[in-house]
Structures are given as C-alpha cells and as structure tokens.
Amino acid sequence: xxxxxxxxxxxxxxxxxxxxxxxxxxxxxxxxxxxxxxxxxxxxxxxxxxxxxxxxxxxxxxxxxxxxxxxxxxxxxxxxxxxxxxxxxxxxxxxxxxxxxxxxxxxxxxxxxxxxxxxxxxxxxxxxxxxxxxxxxxxxxxxxxxxxxxxxxxx
Amino acid sequence: xxxxxxxxxxxxxxxxxxxxxxxxxxxxxxxxxxxxxxxxxxxxxxxxxxxxxxxxxxxxxxxxxxxxxxxxxxx
Lengths: 155, 75
Known about the structure:
The complex is a heterodimer of chains A (155) and B (75). Chain A has 155 residues and is α/β, with parallel strands linked by helices. Chain A has a domain at 4-54 and 98-154: DsrEFH-like (Hypothetical Protein Ychn, Chain: A, 3-Layer(aba) Sandwich). Helix content of chain A is 38%, strand content 16%. Chain A has helices at 14-29, 71-74, 79-93, 99-108, 117-122, 139-146; strands at residues 4-9, 33-38, 112-116, 134-137, 151-154. The model of chain A has no long low-confidence stretch (mean pLDDT 95). Chain B has helices at residues 16-26, 43-54; strands spanning 5-9, 33-38, 57-64, 67-73. The two termini of chain B are 18 Å apart. Chain B is globular. In chain B, helix 1 links the parallel strand 1 (5-9) and strand 2 (33-38). Chain B contains two helices and four strands. The interface between A and B is medium-sized, with 15 and 16 residues.
C-alpha cells in the first residue's frame, strides 16, 4: 500500500520555506502520496511570486553570520534584504535548488497543496496572487488525509 | 558497466540528486540501467536509501576523483 505523508507549513521565511518543499519532493520521489497544508505565514509560499520570501537576522540568533552582528545593527534598514541576498547567494553556490524549483518539482510529482481557508480570509490574501494548483480547505479536510498518514510533520 | 541512460547531478545538493534520479527513471523501461554522477557526498547514503525504499536496484556505488558514480537498475 502506498505510504502517505502530511506536512503542515506555518512559516513564510526563506529558511523555513525549504523544509516542507525538500521533504515533500523527496517523499514523492520515494513513492509517498504527499499533502502539504499551508496555514498562517506558510501561505506566503503559495504566491506566484516568491521574491518577497525573505530571511531576517533579527530574533534569529542561530543564523550563522560572516561577522558577529549586534542586534542594534540588525535592526538597520536594508539588513533584511542584505541577509536575504547573501543567503540566496550561498544557496546557489552550494547547488541548492531555488524555492520555485522545489515547489515545481513537488507539483510535478503530484504533491497536493491545500491552503487554509480561514487564514486566507484572516489575512485577506488575494487568491489570484496564489499559484493555481491549490485547493482550499479547513482543518477537518486536512485530518481526512493526515489521519491515514505514516508521517505527519509540523513545520 | 553498461547503462541505458546517464544523469549528471554534479553540483546539485539534496534533495535534487534523488528527486531528479526518480524523474530520470520515469521514462525508462523495467530492467534498464541509469548511471548517476553526483558530487554531493550525502547522495551516497541517499541513493542506497532511495533504492531500498523504491525497489530499484543499486547495482554499484563508487567514487572516482571526487565524483560519486551510481548504477541504478529500474524495477
């Protein structure tokens, strides 16, 4: 019988966007039937344009920095863009796929994307800004799939 | 070793070598052999795990001058 995996994606920053897509694409390659439930800030990962997905050094003390940086400096304007640019360069240098590429690989492998209707409404997201391969549903719908999975993760 | 198709994953990091190996196998026939070249050292254990979980056969896994070479026989 086909194994199943469900992931709840709740974060919308560049670093935390990777785990759901990496795990989902890998599981699909291994033959799993996979579903990702995007809720709260995870909804940002469904946007057609992912260029605003960023990483912040603020409140992220575990993020390795080239030079130690006091919090007061991390607060300066432009620091978030700079950190994001540096992270993207690093990812590219190491041959790590872009978020767009990983997301496309997930879709090609029939990973199902479900967006939480309640948080879409809560944050007044415009569905036209999301990719079209998304189904909208609630927690009960998620449990319909998650209840029968072999692996269920919260990211 | 003889092979029917080659996939060069040099420079790619996890999970791309595995995900794209799976894609490369998709249009191959049962019993055909795919040669995979990778530079990500994580691919050594991942390729074996991929074979174990998908039923494809990892016929050989070796290293040559910093590159990892795999021969995967499709289930």
